[in-house]
Amino acid sequence: MTTPPRGAAPGLLTLPGTPLADAVVNLVRPVQTPSVFNHSIRTYLFARLVAARLALAAGDDYDDDLLFAACAMHDLGVASDGPHRQRFEVEGADRAAAFLVERGSSEADAEQVWQAIALHTSPGIAERRGTLCVLVREGVALDFGGPLGTDHLDGVTDEQADAVHTAYPRLEMIRSLTDAIVAQAAKHPKNAPRYAIPGEFLRERETFGRTRMEHACRSSRWGD
Known about the structure:
Distance between the termini: 25 Å
Low-confidence stretches: 1-10
Strand content: under 5%
Number of strands: 0
Radius of gyration: 16 Å
CATH topology of the domain at 19-170: Hypothetical protein af1432
């Protein structure tokens, strides 16, 4: 468990530390690049800041273990050991839900996580599918620094952002994640449907050599 640096808000960098959270980390760390892994953990830390800003309390308004699981596994669809036969959001959601059920989670909890992961690239839909979907979507959006759209970017102080990025450096996350999504999308036609994120990323890379997202993130709050 990471120790918060001096000046960080109490608990800012604290991970759940439960058996389920530990199992999730052991699942994703070996099959993701360090950059994508750090992005997944930062997504959780930012999602928890959004929850606090919305006056949502862990245990009452959302399950912190499920929030961590959904955030940490939201890019499991681009993992190096995956079957790579569906768009990455759905493949990751399927793998995450199956993992949770195998670990003893209820079908209802697994379904919540499935929806949060499958819809994390779907603005306007995720926000209407419950608290977990909202928090995962906002955590992802915050870690992109603005281009995905978020109402909470100004709610993260420079001190908080510095602490999060010191503990979990970005390591050119935008390029690394886009590389992984494009590589997964190119492996099977079902992985890259038109007008879905993976399909558009693949076609923009093939046509322009860089995605619009990569271009937009150059001027985002965190950069790459």
